[in-house]
3-isopropylmalate dehydrogenase
Amino acid sequence: MAIKIVCLPGDGIGPEVTQSTIAVLKAVGEKFRIEFDIAEYPIGGIAIEQSGTPLPDQTLAACKEADAVFLGAIGGPQWENPEASVRPEQGLLKLRSELGVFSNIRPLKVFPSLISSSPLKPERLAGVDFVVVRELTGGIYFGERTRQDDYATDECRYSVGEVERIARVACEMAMQRNKRVTSVDKANVLETSRLWREVVTRVVKNEFPEINLEHQLVDSCAMKLIQQPAHFDVILTENMFGDILSDEASVLSGSMGLLASASIGDGVGLFEPIHGSAPDIAGLGIANPYASILSAAMMLRWLNLELAAKAVEDAVLDAIDNGTLTRDLTISNSMREASTKEATQAVLEA
Ligand code: ATP
Ligand code: MG
């Protein structure tokens, strides 16, 4: 039976990297005789233009019936008018919430052939290999918002149950790795963070006694990610802190254009690169497609297609090692910049 994949290309570079990813999925499907049924639906700004809403009912219904959902990126300056009542991001937030994908897994790898292009010294990057486990359907991104002429509010809210389930995801992952969890919060200031810390401590103590748990304040974690990135194994954190820290962490691997993510809950999984729609380079054909293709590899693994997942990851590694690098990864003006198409072709060939 065909595996049903819903693709949501979205806005900006979203359609460009999604197109690359679909080409890779088709190739890997042929190679491993897997039948994919790939259907595209609108989300975000493009959906607002077509139908006035960032998450049309048909899109949501198709996602709920799919085996997996792949998303490019959404948003852009043309929809950022503060007066607008509908915004592209609302579509993605609603999709995550409707699919119940409460855990966002963001692995951070350092690619050996790119170490020289990192702003960090090579010795700091030795042994860097960690995963950010970000809570995705709670916190300040989902609280009530109010706006008056002279003030605005954003509510941040977490329940015990929400913290428990994401803590378990991080602990289960750590058990497969080096059994170390760094829980990140701002417990010296925020009440939600104090709850977070209490609950995480209890889950580890009662259910995962073998895990070595530490707590870090988000500001000091932001510093340590640069100073001593090899320290981390699994970083467990709430929605907004996870968003910010994983963009920061992407610098370690060389570019936002390299980092993949999987959003998992009780049902269908949602897979997307961590980067946004990159409006500054949209339409130029120079976006790095590797993060998107690596997100598809995470999707294949989650679908229990391990051989196909590994083949895709190895092909991306090969393309990088062979020096097929898009503009975001080239360090000097004299280096040849690959286009999105050329990078995709390099993966397909590998
Ligand atoms: P979001 O709010 O959706 O997370 P963002 O504000 O973090 O978006 P991005 O759209 O991810 O911003 O872009 C941040 C910077 O990284 C931009 O300069 C963009 O061009 C660059 N960038 C992001 N993704 C890629 C990519 N795949 N290839 C090349 N450059 C990228
Ligand atoms: Mg971002």
About this structure: Residues 247, 276 surround magnesium ion (ligand 2) (CB under 6 Å). The chain has a mean pLDDT of 95.
